[in-house]
Amino acid sequence: MALRKLKPTTSSQRFKLISAFDEITATKPEKSLLQPGRKTGGRNSEGKMTIRYIGGGHKQQYRVIDFKRDKEGIPATVKSIEYDPNRTARIALLFYSDGEKRYILAPQGLKVGQQIMSGKGVAPEVGNTLYLSEIPYGTIVHNIELRPGQGGKMARSAGTYAQLMSRDGKFAILKLPSGETRMILQACRATVGMVSNVDHSLEVSGKAGRSRWLGRRPRTRGVAMNPVDHPMGGGEGRASGGHPRSRKGTPAKGYKTRAPKKNSSKYILERRKK
After folding, report:
1. Which of 53, 147, 225, 248 is most buried as measured by Cβ atoms within 10 A of its Cβ?
2. Residue 240 has pLDDT above 90, yes or no
3. Taking phi first (over 0 means left), then psi (-120 to 50 degrees means alpha), and beta for anything else, what does residue 144 get?
4. What residues contact residue 68 under an 8 Å CB cut-off, 6+ apart?
5. pTM (2 decimals)?
6. pLDDT tens-place string over residues 110-122
7. Is the pLDDT of residue 171 over 90?
8. Do 139 and 192 meet the contact criterion of CB atoms below 8 Å apart?
């Protein structure tokens, strides 16, 4: 999981830091696990733009990922570690002993040829999926379910993980990547280990074109607009724009947008750090 720095032969390559892709072992994806990845360009079903600054980008196919890990008691062998254009983490192709193939999020340290399993009574080793009731305290986990059988929802991005702190009644208490401490039912599953591609946050694209390849169009700052277009627009000269807020007028930088009576608030023991 190393980074590669290029020779500054052009101005766009001077600060460029990209992944070395040295952990990738396959160049072509598994065809049976591909789906069409259609782009919207930020338009809805009527063709009206509802999200700005989206469009273009390289054509991509979606890799069907198994977030549920519900094949219990059936061993699987890691066939390859692959690149996925739809996410920051790497993915691993599994060959199950019954002949089925599935993609999973590749944890850090997972090797080709390694055997992994999921279910009850499984050893808490990297890549194995267990119920939170069976995972030892202090273990680092990812791909955590919020409801039993729902499939992993939390800690799925590159380099992220949560830590199992303790248990209380039917709940397990986890410290999440945001710093939040939260209760989750012990009947939920989680995968042992940290998500792969930990150096992703250190990458530097080097040029605007790499954002265009990802389907991101140039974003206009609010302070550069006219007052009719944005609350922070207008003014003589380079005005600061006043209090930071969105185009619709919602304040930013400190304004709480979470619903005060949200049902899941009772499961949060400690809020995330600002």
Report:
1. 225
2. no
3. beta
4. 149, 150, 151, 152, 189
5. 0.93
6. 999 999 999 999 9
7. yes
8. yes
Is pLDDT of 80 > 70? yes
- Phi-psi sector, 223: left (phi>0), alpha (psi -120 to 50), beta: alpha
Q: Which helix (H) or strand (E) holds 210?
A: helix 208-213
Q: Where are the domains of the chain?
A: 21-201
b vs e for 146-183, b when ≥16 Cβ sit within 10 Å of the residue's Cβ?
Answer: eeeeeebebbbbbbbbbbbeeeeeebbbbbbbeebbbb
How is the chain split among helix, strand and coil, in percent rounded to 5? Answer: 10, 30, 60
Contact assessment for residue 43 and residue 49, using Cβ atoms and an 8 Å cutoff? yes
Phi, psi of 12 (to 5 degrees): -75, -20
Q: Is 12 helix (H, G, I), strand (E, B) or coil?
A: helix
User: Under CATH, domain 21-201 is a member of which superfamily?
Assistant: Nucleic acid-binding proteins (2.40.50.140)
CA distance 143 to 172: 15
User: What pLDDT score was predicted for residue 1?
Assistant: 62
Using CA atoms, how far residue 257 sits from 106, 150, 268, in Å, is 33, 26, 16
182 neighbors 269 (Cβ within 8 angstroms)? yes
Does residue 129 register a pLDDT over 70? yes
Measured CA to CA, the distance from residue 174 to residue 52 in angstroms comes to 36
At residue 132 the predicted structure's pLDDT band, cuts being 50, 70 and 90, is very high
Token representation of residue 149: 């059988």
What pLDDT does residue 111 have? 96
Q: Kindly state the DSSP code that residue 213 receives in the 8-state scheme.
A: H
Residue 183 has pLDDT above 80, yes or no: yes
Q: Which residues of 220-255 are buried (b: 16+ CB within 10 A; e: fewer)?
A: eebbebeeeebbbbeeeeeeebeeebeeeeeeeeee
